[in-house]
Q: What sequence folds into this?
């Protein structure tokens, strides 16, 4: 998402310019507009984009092929991050309600799968949740931004488990400082954007501290630096892409 330009932009490998594939018609709440989009995923089944249209408090489905307008799927939701599981269910972080909801196909009400117990730092609570990841077992991982931790909620759980951070904010390897994007591999290793520390951390399953795999060299624009990184994603070749927010760029890294 090109957040402040109210659009979704696609950049093909090696391209010098991107292509607007969602929004791009100014800020607004019409069907052909977006307002501060926060996240986007590709729904291969319907060949469409599913967009977290944060400023309009809605989730929008936008056709990938020559789509000129979107269709509202879910309304009245302060949506941040979103993801989809193998069954086509959508998981959305609701910043205002401090929860993650799962929406099965055709469902507009959803089911709470993480949080939903008010703002706080108990294991059944979240504070300013940002991004969400779902593994093959349908366990939900949430970057609990205001609590400086990543939480894992197993299916049907009444509370979560801390899988990264949770030691208040700080710069040590056992701490996070306002985490954002999160991805988990098949071994349960957590990769998390440690935003205010300007680094990407890797936390093996069960570890009490992580390791820095990208950044950690102070805020800056050099190739080994980040400045307010926001979210991350892997491709099928294992390359890691990081949204380097304050540098207005996406960086690609090969990670061992």
A:
């Amino acid at each position: 998402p090109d957040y402040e330009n109210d659009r979704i932009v696609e950049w093909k490998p090696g391209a010098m310019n991107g292509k607007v594939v969602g929004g791009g018609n100014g800020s607004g709440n019409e069907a052909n507009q977006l307002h501060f989009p926060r996240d986007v995923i590709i729904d291969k089944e319907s060949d469409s984009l599913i967009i977290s249209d944060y400023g309009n408090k809605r989730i929008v489905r936008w056709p990938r092929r020559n789509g000129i307008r979107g269709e509202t799927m879910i309304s009245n939701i302060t949506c941040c991050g979103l993801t989809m599981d193998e069954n086509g269910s959508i998981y959305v972080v609701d910043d205002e309600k401090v929860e993650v909801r799962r929406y099965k196909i055709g469902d507009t009400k959803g089911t709470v799968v993480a949080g939903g117990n008010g703002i706080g730092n108990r294991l059944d609570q979240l504070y300013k949740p940002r991004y969400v990841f779902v593994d093959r077992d349908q366990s939900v991982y949430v970057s609990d931004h205001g609590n400086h931790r990543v939480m894992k909620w197993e299916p049907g759980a009444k509370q979560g488990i801390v899988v990264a951070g949770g030691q208040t904010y700080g710069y040590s390897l056992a701490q996070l400082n306002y985490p954002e994007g999160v991805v988990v591999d098949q071994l349960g290793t957590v990769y998390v954007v440690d935003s205010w520390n300007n680094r990407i951390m890797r936390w093996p399953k069960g570890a009490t501290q992580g390791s820095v795999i990208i950044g950690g060299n102070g805020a800056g624009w050099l190739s080994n630096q980040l400045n307010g990184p926001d979210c991350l994603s892997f491709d099928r070749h294992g390359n890691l892409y990081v949204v380097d927010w304050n540098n207005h760029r996406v960086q690609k890294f090969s990670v061992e």
